[in-house]
């Protein structure tokens, strides 16, 4: 008829987390009860594709207790929103029309103006992520002409990086 909050107590039995809820005592014969439970489970990152709950109804008072049980499997889906941010320093640059690259030079200024491109990959959550791959294609040639001379590639924050084979070919 009405709604009541259940008194539930978490326990650990044989390495399994158990939650015991008292539904009522004494309970009249033939009573029907509907229970809605909301469980908050943490640490699901390493649980795999699903988590299984074993639900069992036990009566302490019955001479021949019935132990109805049911198994409920709930799929685990991680949710995380990734965001890629990028900047170029300087934001704009203009080469004079008379400027030409000096072939064979090992001086950086003879190859053009230094531009640094910085990319940041952010996890906006709510879940954690691992094993993320970011592929970044940088056009360095325009036909047979050097468009961008790729000097170096660096990372921060424990990321691994595979470098392009055309990185700093003149060893500037």
From TrEMBL:
MF-aspect GO terms: integrin binding
Species classification: Eukaryota, Metazoa, Chordata, Craniata, Vertebrata
Cellular component aspect of the GO annotation: external side of plasma membrane; integrin complex
Integrin alpha second immunoglobulin-like domain sequence ranges: 3-76
Protein name, UniProt field: ITA2B protein
Signal peptide coordinates: none
Keyword Membrane among UniProt keywords: yes
Gene name tied to this protein: Itga2b
Subcellular compartments: Membrane
Keyword Glycoprotein: yes
Record keywords: Glycoprotein, Integrin, Membrane
Membrane disposition: Single-pass type I membrane protein
Pfam families: Integrin_A_Ig_2, Integrin_A_Ig_3
Highest taxon in the source lineage: Eukaryota
Domain Integrin alpha third immunoglobulin-like: 83-171
